[in-house]
Amino acid sequence: STFAAYRIVKKKLLVRDPDDLTNTTPLQVGQRSAKGLEAALTLDLPQGFGAEANGTILDAKFDELNAGGVSYNGNTPPNVPEATANLWLPYDVTQRLRLRTGLRYVGRTFSDNANTYRVPGYAVVDGGASYAVTDNVALNLRVYNLFNKDYATTTYNDEQWLLGRPRSVDVSVRARF
Known about the structure:
A hairpin with a 5-residue loop joins strand 2 and strand 3. It contains no helices and 14 strands. The strands form 4 sheets. Strands 1-2-3-6-7-10-11-14 form an 8-stranded antiparallel sheet, with no helix packed on it. Strands 4-5 form a two-stranded antiparallel sheet. Helix content is 0%, strand content 63%.
């Protein structure tokens, strides 16, 4: 298991020059900070079962950000979730075959500096299997968004929502040398 508490400060944020939107050189202004807690736990259970869990609680904000005459001080930066969590349940069927199912949660976010548009949080279920063909080669199958849930990862104001990954499958071969 692990646990971490932190505070991160980022200075000289990049913003577009509000007085000259054709200028591609950004201005360096302001500061933002984040403080949070992270925890992770892995358990090996009997009969080939296991559990892997992790989560984060985050408080991010603009300490100082003025752009175009507007103050965003105290607002949450865009695309930063308040919380995230993962829970994976692996099962070793044999020494060569491993199955996994997992729940992935991402908390709500804002899509703009003014915190006008909120993107709802979401939870999706993923799964996978890994088969060790040899000691150095494995075939992996990963299924994302198993139940094909619709969810948004970000928005452009309230007009356009960018949806997250639909149900999809990745197949890969992993080799060690």
